[in-house]
Design goal:
Number of strands: 22
Helix content: 10-25%
Distance between the termini: 41 Å
Strand content: 35-45%
Shape: globular
Order of helices and strands: EEEEEEEEHEEEHEEEEEEEEEEEHHH
Structural class: mainly beta
Oligomer: single chain
Largest sheet: 12 strands, antiparallel
Number of helices: 5
Strand order of the largest sheet: 8-12-13-14-15-17-18-21-9-10-11-22
Length: 375
Amino acid sequence: MAQTIQGKIVDETTGEAIPFVSIGVIGTNNTTVTNDAGEFILKNVNLPAKLRYSHVSYLLLEDEISTTNNLFVKLKAAAINLKAVVVDPYRGQRLIKAALEKAKEFEKENIYGNAFYRQLTSINGKPSQIYELFYDLEFNVAKVKGWLAKQSRFAELNEGLSFAMSNQSYLTFSLAGYLFEDRKAGMFVTLKNLKDFEITIEKYIEQKDQDIAVVACKYKGNKKQFYINSTYYIGVEDTKVYRLENSIFNVPMSINAISKIPPTATTVATFNSSRTAIPVLESISSKLYLNLNAKGRSLNPVISAMLTVYQLDKTLKTQKFTELTKKVQDKAIIESIEYNPIFWKDNPIVKQTALEDAFIKMMESKSAFGTMIDP
């Protein structure tokens, strides 16, 4: 019988939780990633099963399991090689160019999967709003192209201080790939403008099959415009992108308040190519930081979002997906779906960090989910 597996992954030396570890059942398409607390859940696992744990900064681990008890997995950090960094000052640029050229060969190949999305808004350090979505996705190596919402829930506090981001999903999904050739606004790393970035290899992570080069790309031009500094984790042999970290400056958005400083954001995307020709999206987290003054009050909203593609499914291509644009209103999508409390009760995909877990339990105790009104 299919079982649900739960566990936590930590650093072998420090004992600290490791986010964004890929966990997969070898020989199947069943995968997931750890959340911020290093926790993961895998459902529909036939025991005994062999699991693969992978992260670009840690040594690959494969382990056979025969129990559903909580797993506690320790990963050994991969060795870091700094000696080779200065040997060839142009190698980083060549690696970026090769990786983007390889991705461009697959830019028209759409991928389909089931995904879970959570967005948490905090104001001045206190959680105030949360919503969660299950949906089907259509995406490629450049971005998420379309979505089809299936289940949703939403709740928020009403304490006289509120802030809502109506389309955080667009920011998250638009940066869910690693090929930005068609972007019309902002300065991104593309094949056309590599010269506009200072590109250096920060280090090499020594893995069993190949080293992973950590390549930093810092924009050299006008810092007053919308631009992104990126760090790519690229296989030195296969030139595939396995991780992409973005620091986003001067995010273009309209705010009905006085912004003390331009909005900034960060994203971390992970990609997996264990069963595909090109690395495909596995997870992406985003955080948007604002510093506002509204009606004489100082507001510091932080909007955190986490997308997890927990299963690929080619059969989803027959569906009609809603195109993702700046005009998409997340809350309108959520409120268009009837809340199903049975679906959410003990759902194994809904992984939670401690902060989110406490906030969700409080909202559940107030019967806030599904009512679409402030508790």
